[in-house]
Amino acid sequence: MRRAIVADPTQNTTGLPRPRHWVYGRKGRPCLRCGTPVAFRPGERTPHGRETWWCPRCQPD
């Protein structure tokens, strides 16, 4: 985490240079990393009221 913040302060959870967002806004579309359809949960179904996108394969529970 320290290396990511110091070396490159932009948001990046994969360590790969592109794209800017791998799953955000891609509900049902293929994950850009592995091709699995991106999952989505609306804000009213999350503990903090925030919309959430994730790849079930790259970002398991």
TrEMBL record:
Residue ranges annotated for the FPG-type domain, each copy included: 22-60
This protein's UniProt keywords: Metal-binding, Zinc, Zinc-finger
SUPFAM superfamilies: Glucocorticoid receptor-like (DNA-binding domain)
Coiled coil: none
InterPro entries: Znf_DNA_glyclase/AP_lyase
PROSITE patterns given in the database record: ZF_FPG_2
Region (Disordered) residue spans: 1-20
Name under which the protein is recorded: FPG-type domain-containing protein
Record organism: Pseudonocardia humida
